[in-house]
């Protein structure tokens, strides 16, 4: 175990993730974690993160100087490096100029264990206003920049290392090498941790935490909720109940697929409740055309259905959620549960009686969740699912939602996905789907006039879904998809391709 002590920096989980990428287990804990607890955990190394404060501020995050005297290797990053200098007898001050962004750092101690294999001049990512003016007694300065007299320092005997820059971000070109050096050369970690160890230890921890309690989970069939449900099922079996609400706005055959995997004839030991709430949702959405109103209705109705099912089960002890780390960041630390459910299910159900939330994936990034899913033998098509919005096809049908329109968009979307997959171009796309415009136009089919809907095809490339570029799908693929849609989907006589990026458009249509 390598322990990351969180002093409020932005990249804390990224540090942990980088260490896990070295096959060394790593977890983030608040900087207030007690020395006793740390001794008990017996980590091979500790990393102090960055943070927004100056060590001189009254309320700045600190830790005990004792931590630097346990003989456990410590790496201080940014604020963490200043804190190390400050706790010992070094000097921290406001830098004459702040350094932000890519900065050339000169390594001044070539035989430093932290910089083995690192170039003498290396590009690092800086983001600081304070700096270490003077290293503490016993420390050697190991790197400098034109601004920083101490861009890195170390006390090899005490196994204390500090860097002003951020080795965890990709802009620090040799940052991964430095972190590898820390965990292997300095901390002597074995590097034999694998995702299956995460899976095993998480199952163990869930068992301990839940005991004989009952857990209720809303399962959407998306990657996160599926992996969370499988971990819980492995841990507590039938003490887990998963409620899957079919709101009638899912992709073609999706409801049956989810039931196939998680239902009574599926692969897992859990109670599965599929609620067919199509009619309820369609009724509520009748005549509603305003996008926000539609979203709200879908979100609220989801909660009502979920609550009704939960009430039938009676008191539960825990509510299981598939919150992952980016959700935690998005919503501000500590408030994740509320926001995630907001995002996906429109808020936590008030009347479900539970005492605590369990979030087994809270520390993982999406690709790590997928790796955990593979370890758990979850079918590949579930693991590689594209993101699908909580309000489902409701926001891919412009204007009023009707059962007929849902069928049209489901069929068109299934054809589109099938052909994109067949053409082998799916791997470059962040998200791609068909939407039903509310536009009808004149066409000619056979010898007759038609007046039917236009389907819009969308495909975007994105890594963070905050911005996106429209993808240039091969014309042959678009052409096959178009022919198939107008021939096979009744009610459609025109297919359009959306060439807009985000911004100015959003990925979804409403
Ligand atoms: P937009 O349309 O905002 O979408 O560019 C960005 C990403 O978020 C997904 N999305 C949602 N996901 N609940 C969700 O869980 C929602 O209400 C929701 N709205 C959009 C969208 O599919 C895309 O991946």
From TrEMBL:
Q: What class of enzyme is it?
A: ligase
Which part of the chain is the GMPS ATP-PPase domain? Answer: 193-385
Offer an example of a GO molecular function term for this protein. Answer: GMP synthase activity
Ligase listed as a keyword = yes
The record's EC number reads 6.3.5.2
Question: Which terms are listed as keywords in the entry?
Answer: ATP-binding, Glutamine amidotransferase, GMP biosynthesis, Ligase, Nucleotide-binding, Purine biosynthesis
Pfam families in the record: GATase (PF00117), GMP_synt_C (PF00958), tRNA_Me_trans (PF03054)
Task: Name the catalysed reactions.
Answer: XMP + L-glutamine + ATP + H2O = GMP + L-glutamate + AMP + diphosphate + 2 H(+)
Keyword Membrane assigned to the entry: answer is: no
Superkingdom, taxonomy of origin: Bacteria
Q: In which pathway does it act?
A: Purine metabolism; GMP biosynthesis; GMP from XMP (L-Gln route): step 1/1
Active site at 78, 166, 168
Q: Where does the record locate the signal sequence feature?
A: none
Where, in this chain's numbering, is ATP bound? 220-226
Q: Which GO terms describe its cellular component?
A: cytosol
Description of how the protein assembles with itself and partners? Homodimer.
- Extract the PANTHER family matched here: GMP SYNTHASE [GLUTAMINE-HYDROLYZING], GMP SYNTHASE-RELATED
Function of the protein: Catalyzes the synthesis of GMP from XMP.
Protein name as catalogued: GMP synthase [glutamine-hydrolyzing]
UniProt organism field? Pectinatus brassicae
């Amino acid at each position: 175990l390598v322990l990351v002590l969180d002093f409020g920096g932005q990249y804390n989980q990224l540090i942990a993730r980088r260490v896990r990428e070295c096959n060394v287990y790593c977890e983030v804990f608040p900087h207030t974690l007690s020395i006793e607890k740390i001794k008990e955990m017996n980590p091979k190394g500790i990393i102090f993160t960055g943070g927004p404060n100056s060590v001189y501020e009254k309320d700045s995050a600190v830790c005990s100087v004792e931590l630097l005297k346990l003989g456990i290797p410590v790496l201080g990053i940014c604020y963490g490096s200043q804190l190390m200098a400050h706790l010992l007898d070094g000097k921290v001050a406001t830098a004459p100029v702040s350094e932000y962004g890519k900065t050339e750092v000169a390594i001044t101690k070539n035989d430093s264990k932290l910089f083995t294999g690192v170039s003498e001049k290396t590009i690092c990512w800086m983001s600081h206003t304070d700096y270490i003016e003077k290293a503490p007694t016993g420390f050697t300065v190991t790197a400098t920049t034109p601004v920083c007299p101490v861009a890195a320092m170390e006390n090899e005997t005490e196994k204390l290392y500090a860097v002003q820059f951020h080795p965890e971000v990709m802009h620090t070109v040799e940052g991964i090498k430095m972190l590898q050096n820390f965990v292997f050369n300095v901390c002597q970690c074995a590097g034999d941790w694998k995702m299956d160890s995460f899976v095993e230890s998480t199952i163990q921890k869930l068992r301990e935490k839940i005991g004989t309690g009952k857990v209720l989970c809303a399962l959407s069939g998306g990657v996160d909720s599926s992996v969370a449900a499988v971990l819980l099922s492995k841990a507590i079996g039938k003490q887990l109940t998963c409620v899957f609400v079919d709101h009638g706005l899912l992709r073609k055959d999706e409801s049956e697929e989810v039931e196939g995997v998680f239902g009574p004839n599926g692969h897992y030991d859990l109670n599965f409740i599929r609620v067919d709430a199509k009619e309820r949702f369609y009724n509520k959405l009748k005549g509603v055309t305003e996008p926000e109103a539609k979203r709200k209705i879908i979100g609220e109705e989801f909660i009502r259905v979920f609550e009704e099912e939960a009430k039938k089960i009676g008191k539960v002890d825990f509510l299981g959620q598939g919150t992952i780390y980016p959700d935690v960041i998005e919503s501000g630390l500590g408030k994740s549960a509320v926001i995630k459910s907001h995002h996906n299910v429109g808020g936590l159900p008030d009347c479900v009686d539970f005492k605590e939330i369990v979030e087994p994936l809270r520390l993982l990034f999406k690709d790590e969740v997928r790796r955990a899913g593979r370890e758990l033998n979850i079918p590949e098509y579930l693991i590689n699912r594209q993101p699908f919005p909580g309000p489902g096809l409701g926001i891919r049908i412009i204007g009023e939602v009707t059962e007929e329109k849902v069928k049209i968009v489901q069929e068109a979307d299934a054809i589109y996905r099938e052909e994109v997959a067949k053409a082998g171009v799916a791997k470059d796309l962040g998200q791609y789907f068909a939407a039903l415009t509310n536009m009808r136009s004149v066409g000619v089919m056979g010898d007759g006039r038609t007046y039917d809907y236009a389907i819009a095809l969308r495909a975007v490339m994105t890594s963070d879904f905050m911005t996106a570029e429209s993808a240039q799908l091969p014309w042959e693929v678009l052409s096959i998809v178009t022919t198939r849609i107008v021939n096979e989907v009744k009610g459609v006589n025109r297919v359009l391709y959306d060439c807009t990026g985000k911004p100015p458009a959003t990925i979804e249509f409403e």
